[in-house]
UniProtKB/TrEMBL annotation, chain A:
Protein's recorded name: Ni/Fe hydrogenase formation protein
PROSITE patterns for the chain: HUPF_HYPC
GO terms (BP aspect): protein maturation
Assigned protein family: Belongs to the HupF/HypC family.
PANTHER family, per the entry: HYDROGENASE MATURATION FACTOR HYBG (PTHR35177)
Organism: Streptomyces lydicus
TrEMBL record, chain B:
UniProt keyword Iron, yes or no: yes
PANTHER family: HYDROGENASE MATURATION FACTOR HYPD, HYDROGENASE PROTEIN ASSEMBLY PROTEIN HYPD
Keywords tagged on the record: Iron, Metal-binding
Annotated source species: Streptomyces lydicus
NCBIfam families: hypD
Protein name as annotated: Hydrogenase formation protein HypD
Amino acid sequence: MCLAVPGKVLDIEERDGTRMATVDFGGVVKEVCLEYVPDLKVGEYAIVHVGFALQRLDEESARQTLALFEELGLLQEEFGDPWEAAAAQGGQQAVPGADGAPAAAVGTTAREARQ
Amino acid sequence: MKYIDEFQDPELARRLLDDIHAMATRPWALMEVCGGQTHTIIRHGIDQLLPEKVELIHGPGCPVCVTPLEVIDKALEIAARPDVIFCSFGDMLRVPGTDRDLFRVRSEGGDVRVVYSPLDALKTAQQNPDREVVFFGIGFETTAPPNAMTVYQARKLGIRNFSLLVSHVRVPPAIEAIMTSPSCRVQAFLAAGHVCSVMGTAEYPALAERFQVPIVVTGFEPLDILEGIRRTVGQLERGEHTVDNAYPRAVRAEGNPAAQAMLADVFEVTDRSWRGIGTIPASGWRLSERYREYDAEHRFSVENITTREPAACRSGEVLQGLLKPHECEAFGTTCTPRTPLGATMVSSEGACAAYYLYRRLGTTPTPQEASPVA
């Protein structure tokens, strides 16, 4: 959870009076709040933690970190299906929740997103 | 060197390690504060590549691990209520409460949902106006600003069915608690890089001066850690104790002022209990008076919680760097990721989980494995 992942800003828009961006994390695309780095521009990179950009990052550092995180399986850990991971850890069966989504379909993995 | 080829830049890693080996003339004990750093260290065998004189001690910087049992039990009780949608980050699912975890609550019918961002929980509240949506707000200075912004947004948008179960903690008071403990062996700190991305380094010079310890801001990648260790050992050998930033690509001295301003608006500093450690003065945040209506503890009656810490769990000693995970009698026997006694065994940043995952069961590396020139 403490892991902050570099991502590239794809587009920016105001939503409910808040500056939001679509950010690409090596294949996984997420909504990210830009209120803490308000001058971030499309095409730039930032360190993102739990959906919030926290600091701007240069492109080369961002690319290197993303490549390393993917190699180490950290992107899967960050963006994969948490119910499936918890079930596997506990040797249990993941059950569908009240939100109706089967546990295995909750997240999108880096690999799936790129296909 | 056993693992060196797995480094992003093996040549640079070798040079950094050679420097550290050449510099270290006396025994030094360094604490890496952050659990993310612990995992990098164990995963890459960095501790085994260092000179015998340089010891890494694992610190308390895993937010999941330090969340007290009482708060976990409150979360479980709230999550089990039929009128509640309980939102959490994924790494809280298997953290054991007194007699169950969030995974179990969901299997028993509780509406527990995992979100990527606290703003997703707020969206859930907007989409379910007839339900109470509670977000489990844990974490250090890196996670607190996103949660602060979410509560600010809830108030701005007039969303009333949203609240936060808050258990936020701060790093500097933890450093102070570690340094004032009579059994403390720590001589320097590798500070947590992303905490400093938010808070900057202003809180550290006073600590470095008071306890005469070098504090080097360090990132999370293997080379970041090696560079942090190189600078730290250099200071120790020279008898210096300054604050140094070895992670400048992500950390500026002033941190992120916008995030700090939001923290100051939404939260106020309070004493916090740390799991396995106890109460540390001024070591956390709670919602300030003007945001109190968004505090889940006020909204739900969860005061009469009875908690039972498992006696066999020694995670408190692990979190203070007094015990290595494999030195605990329960490690790998009665305590495994499948049957965890404490959060340090199931958190993705937990020290016990790192030792278990990477098979560090207390075996000493052979000289060939440990030597930097092999």
